[in-house]
Amino acid sequence: MKKIELSVTGMTCDHCVSTVKGALEGIEGVTDVGVSLEKAMAWLNASSGVSPDELVGAVENAGYHATVPTGAEAPLSASKHAKELVIIGGGAAAF
Questions:
Q1: For residues 10 and 46, what is the distance between their CA atoms, to the nearest angstrom?
Q2: Which residues pair with 2 in a beta bridge?
Q3: 6-23 pLDDT, tens digit each
């Protein structure tokens, strides 16, 4: 099993959340589906046979837009944060 997060746009109410959740739960190999209207996200556990394209397709067939956020964004943010810490630390040492 693997944990997958999807960014879901187009949801405006609790009925939308239920529709997206049902679309994802209808895929064989998908369990523990959660959907947040406020965060515009869905998360789930999927067997290795479930592809991200299959998940996106199910959400889009339900009338919404979905994407799988790339993992490359997290290291970039972490790297930026680390540089800020180095600069702050270096500035404090100068005083």
A1: 23
A2: 46
A3: 999 999 999 999 999 999
